[in-house]
Write a structure and sequence with these properties.
By secondary structure, the protein is an alpha/beta fold. The protein has five helices and eleven strands. Strand 3, helix 2 and strand 4 form a beta-alpha-beta unit.
Length: 255
């Protein structure tokens, strides 16, 4: 795991809670998630931020925003269910860290972006629930046998609502974010079930799966997909992270 460079004046400081599960875990998904964490850190830095690796919610002082990355499954007991057999890498320490960072960031008014597990975690934090293991449907959300050069992903398009925070991450220029359709790297077996009060849906897949959420009262948004996937063109990978960095920069300038 890479260590972020020393802070540079004028660059927003964006926290990312570390991954606590070892890449040596026999389940290859754990190592893959840790690799994606490193991609997110790199993209934040390339987008103009100073990433800060968070090992505690007490590390939030001086931050300008937070990204909640992917990883293993949340403990279903957090949303009132017993864990099913399909749950993997349920790490109570990770749940505690991510939830504490998310809760305190929201309370502090920091911009928060959730990705995959981070998307699901925000829904649970706000009081929603998850589908523990998705049934096969008309849209593939995970690729059981990855194709050559396609990575561990199922690929499909998703439409993002006009005027939403998530659409703003994909807009080409300033102003109100128009509706946009993006091709996404999808790799998940869980999904949002009951959408929490206080969140609104800003993107859905063709089968109705909730692909993006946001809090209309503050800059909190999340996506189920992986914008950091290396198989995407470099400019497409960087764009949403650069846009989020600008959200954090503008918040800092407005204080």
């Amino acid at each position: 795991m890479q260590t972020p460079a020393r802070p540079v004046s004028g660059r927003p400081r964006i926290g990312v809670p570390v991954r606590l599960s070892s890449s040596e875990d026999p389940d290859p998904r754990v190592g893959e998630a840790n690799g994606l964490f490193d991609y997110i850190v790199d993209l934040l830095r390339d987008g103009g931020a100073d990433p800060v690796l968070l090992t505690s919610a007490e590390d939030l002082a001086g931050l300008d925003g937070v990204v909640l990355p992917g990883g293993g499954d949340l403990d279903p007991r957090l949303y009132g269910e017993e864990p099913g057999e399909a749950c993997y890498d349920v790490n109570h320490g990770q749940d505690a860290l991510d939830l504490a960072v998310a809760r305190q960031s929201v309370d502090a008014g920091l911009p928060v972006l959730g990705i995959c597990r981070g998307h699901q975690l925000l829904n649970v934090l706000y009081g929603g629930s998850l589908v523990q293991d998705m049934d096969p449907g008309t849209v593939a959300h995970r690729e059981p046998a990855p194709l050559h050069d396609a990575g561990p992903w199922a690929w499909h398009e998703v439409g993002i609502a006009a005027g939403s925070k998530v659409a703003g991450l994909y807009r080409d220029s300033g102003g109100t974010a128009a509706a946009v359709t993006v091709k996404i790297a999808s790799g998940h077996h869980q999904a949002v079930a009951r959408v929490a009060d206080g969140l609104v849906v800003s993107a859905v897949a063709g089968d109705g799966t909730v692909e993006a959420l946001e809090d209309p009262a503050r800059w909190v948004a999340s996506v189920q997909w992986h914008p950091e996937a290396q198989e995407l063109p470099a400019a497409e990978r960087l764009a949403p992270f650069r846009a989020f960095v600008e959200v954090c920069r503008n918040r800092t300038a407005a204080r």
